[in-house]
User: What shape does this take?
Amino acid sequence: MVERRCISCWKVKDRSELIKITADYDSGNVVVSPNSITFGRSAYLCYNKSCIETAFKKNKLGKHLKTSIPNEVKGQLLDELRND
Ligand SMILES: [Zn+2]
Assistant: This one.
């Protein structure tokens, strides 16, 4: 079991229970649920709205990934909730 920690609530969960967000090293793009060829600094969030909202307060996600987060990333994360 691969465990990761949500950056919003700090709960440790199995990787499959968290959304991965990666800042790609090459392009600098912030990618939600990247494929395996995307390498970069990553953060994890629970599949729930409050953890996603918290990640955008005080630029928590941006600080974690050490980059600025485009506005559309929040929408992509909320879409992940619908896909589940
Ligand atoms: Zn969480």
User: Anything to note?
Assistant: The chain has a mean pLDDT of 94.
